[in-house]
Amino acid sequence: MNKIQRVHLMGLGGAGMSALALLLKARGFEVTGCDLKESHYDLHGINFQLGHSRDHIEKFKPDALILSSAISHDNDEVLFAKSKGVKLMSRAEALSSLFNCSTGIGIAGAHGKTTTSSMTGLIFLRAGLSPTVYVGANVPDIGSNAVSGESDYFIAELDESDGTFELFHPSVAIITNADWDHVDHYKTREDFINAFTRFVDGRKAGGALVICGFDPEAQKVLERCDKTRGPVITYGLGKNFDWGACDIKTSHGGGASCKIFHAGLELGTLELFVSGEHNILNSLAAIAAADFCGINFEKSISILKKFHGSERRMQIKFTTQNNILVMDDYAHHPSEINATLKAVRSIYPERRLVVLYQPHRFTRTAAFAPRIAEALSMADEIFLLPVFSAGEKEISHSSSNEILNACTKKITPVDFHNALEKISAALKPGDLFLTMGAGDVYTIGEALESHFIV
Questions:
Q1: Cβ atoms 54, 77 nearer than 8 A
Q2: pLDDT score of 404
Q3: pLDDT for 453 beyond 70
């Protein structure tokens, strides 16, 4: 990257690409970009073009074209850039070139990495360490999905979906879990665990591994990795970890608390604005990483107490005049669905839970349909959208019907043409309506606002 001045990002509208663009701009690069849809992220004045066109290459004359994973290499703009000698880079290649020159804290895992990255970034920011922070979602407490800091610390959420997280060599590697996912890239559970093991072993010499000892798949990574590489710090629920949480309590309407133990000794009480056991675990990872870097426990818990969560993570959208609470969550893997619904049930036990779920990717739906159906059955009423393809071609036994047929509860199939009408008719005063999925399902929840007087 030190030989590059002008960069053009294709797929700029997404969370990861927009965050990268902000960091590149802050570091003095001339940044432009394009996408097929408008971005809902604040691009802070970056020149954004709607659509893809070879004209962008002629107009902006970039030294490098950075591609999101959704951009095909046979795209006309990409082919034209290549013919002009423009360097092609993936998002991970560009980001890792910045990250690897820093004291990097890399957060990886099938679930929880966005919130853990947000928590870790907030601790370092509020502790006055001026880190660079890169997160795959807007973080209200930070005011963005990226911050360019002045210190050598670089806190980044790393994407394991296509294996490119192995390009990153952190000084602190955090593994939240290694629950098999992205079956389009990792054909077996073993492939997934081995990739995480290689990532862990790729951390810088003397670098710490902060890993969830509570997760059985992460334990396999721990068993296989090179423990001589640097310190290994475990965390989990209970006292049998370097950092543990006990006596978890849930607050009605949201929030959680627990007692924190370090090396078997009770340090104090953690109080969170966010909810769920999964967020207790995320907090432990952030606290452990902060402690390794010299931020004391009391400072970390005082900062986490004021953490309000990341966008699309159990996010409260609005409450209607007749007391229907509308929430949104990014969960799309069965483990995530289970964790979110369990948490929502615990903080709103009196509300009827109505869920609209949008399956994400045909490959994931085909692999996990029975588990997704089982997790969704925690809801009182379920609506199901067609699969959000995320660019995949449909395969056999991969439609929403696979989930519908596997579920023991009645599921009402809907689409974007009739979902609003059917859901509005089904909702009752006092209900909790939750949209779930990694696609555009959240737009249905937002559209409900016009159907009710808020």
A1: yes
A2: 86
A3: no
| Burial 248-266, CB ≥16 within 10 A → b, else e | eebeeebbbbbbbbbeeee
Q: Rounded distance, CA 99 to CA 92, Å? A: 10
The domain that holds 441 is classified in CATH as 3.90.190.20
What are the structure tokens assigned to 83, written together?
């013919």
Q: Which residue has the higher pLDDT, 395 or 33?
A: 33
Report pLDDT for 452.
64
pLDDT tens string 27-44:
999 999 999 988 888 888
The pLDDT confidence band at residue 310, using thresholds 50, 70 and 90, is confident
pLDDT score at 42: 83
Q: Which domain holds residue 380?
A: 315-451
293 & 322 share domain: no
| Residue 1, domain member (yes or no) | no
Residue labelled with tokens 């809902």: 40
If we measure between CA atoms, which residue out of 23, 27, 20 comes closest to residue 5? Answer: 27
Q: How many domains is the chain built from? A: 3
Residue 203 lies in a domain: yes
Q: What order of strands is seen across the sheet that includes strand 232-237?
A: 144-147, 132-139, 153-157, 103-108, 172-175, 208-212, 232-237, 243-250, 256-262, 265-272
Distance of CA 17 to the CA centre of its chain: 14
Report helix, strand or coil for 336.
helix
Dmax over CA atoms of the chain, in Å, equals 63
Residue 359 amino acid letter: P
| Residue 261 covered by a domain | yes
Q: Do 390 and 330 belong to one domain?
A: yes
Which of 146, 112, 139 minimizes the C-alpha distance to 307?
Answer: 139
Last residue of a domain, one of 280, 304, 328: 304
- DSSP states along 412-446: EE--TTTHHHHHHHH--TT-EEEEE-SSSTHHHHH
